[in-house]
Amino acid sequence: MVETLDALEIYQRHLDIVSRAFWLEEWDELIRHMRLPGHTRLRDADIEVTTPEQAVAMHKELRICYRRIGASDYCRIGYQAAFTDKAQTKIVGRHRTHVVRSGCYVLPVYDCEMKVQLHDEVWQACGINCSVSNKDVNIIGAVANLQDHLAQA
Amino acid sequence: MSEQAREIYQSWLDLLAQAVWCRDFDRVASHMTYPNTMETVDGSSTIETPDEMLAAVSDFRKFLERVGAQAYLRVCTSAQFVSADTQITGQHTTYILRGGTYLLPPFSNEMTLTRGAQHWLGTYIRADVNNHTCTILSPAQLRRARLEAGKSHLMEETK
Questions:
Q1: Fewest CB atoms within 10 A around its CB: which of A104, A150, B16, B98?
Q2: Structure pTM?
Q3: Got the DSSP string for B94-125?
Q4: What was the ipTM of the complex prediction?
């Protein structure tokens, strides 16, 4: 029997797989679920990640940020998602990110809008907008620094 | 969904989740009405006193520890005022987490809050999960509730 999933179920599954890979620092698994180049937009920063190395560097930095603020876990919960093409290979969805420690939030809960696309039977994230500032959550750190470095070279 | 009701409901969830996690069971007990009804898919329990609530919450916290939970999160999905703004009914999803993933499949809940003199109080909760999967109802209290239900059933039959 073929399992049929709606857009929100697919979106949530993608979130869960990537959250787990991110938290356990399984970078190959995380990259397998990303479509590059991909755009990451925050309130005060904006970057296009073009290579797996950049994507890993960015996520390592974010993982360090969460560790530094004492987060014990991380949960992303989808609340809206829709297919954007007839073939049902593209989804735009919204989710809320919860970064928690000891039953309370270590960061204010923030909303994100993300695009995911089916490629070789794997749903891959290909762009995300987060309603958070990079000064609060260090999402764009290593990559931005790298690009600054390259720009100066 | 009323935004104000949702905010009150979510604040209550956050406060109590933190109290459970930090073993501040007095705080949990002081945010409930008595008798307090708790239901799961496979059982129900009426908690008559704050002391019984302390025991029940302590059992639940032990369960979280036993399964290796690293975080306990409850997120409101809907909430609305009823009874002239003195009660809120709502739904939320419970997430028990470890290492960026779920230790149990997230489950939904229905809950009623009643406005108290100082703060909102939990009156009723129904969790859409089996108690043998997630120990929401204290095993001792559940056994007692089943015994009492059995006794009253027997009395009905012998009338």
A1: A150
A2: 0.82
A3: EEEEETTEESS--EEEEEEEEE-SSSEEEEEE
A4: 0.74
